[in-house]
Amino acid sequence: MTRPTEEPGRPLEQFREYLSLLARLQVGPGPNGQVDPSDLVQQTLLKAHENRDQFRGTTDAERAAWLRAILANQVRDA
User: Fold this and answer.
1) Helices within 1-78 (DSSP H only)
2) Which residue, 1, 11, 56, 66, has most beta carbons within 10 Å?
3) How far is the C-alpha of 27 from the C-alpha of 36, rounded, in Å?
4) What is the residue-level pLDDT of the chain in tens, covering all 78 positions?
5) Torsions phi, psi of 37, nearest 5?
6) What residues contact residue 66 under an 8 Å CB cut-off, 6+ apart?
7) Whole-model pTM?
8) What is the C-alpha to C-alpha distance for residues 50 and 65, in angstroms, rounded to an integer?
9) Residues near 43 by Cβ (< 8 Å), separated by ≥ 6?
């Protein structure tokens, strides 16, 4: 059986503002720092999309936690 194209719950893009807030809190605002928070958010959403088959949750809260973990890895790697 193939996986449906559209997953249940909120689309990943709807978490962008939430992830932006978290990224700014972790690395500081704007491009004055070494890392631009918006770049981290974009990379987070890209990784989440590429690895969407690894998401095992069912709720928006679980999806948010999964995205937070991906963001934390992006911050660490930056």
Assistant:
1) 16-27, 37-50, 60-77
2) 66
3) 8
4) 444 444 556 789 999 999 999 999 988 765 566 789 999 999 999 999 999 999 999 999 999 999 999 999 999 998
5) -55, -35
6) 48, 55, 57
7) 0.81
8) 17
9) 74
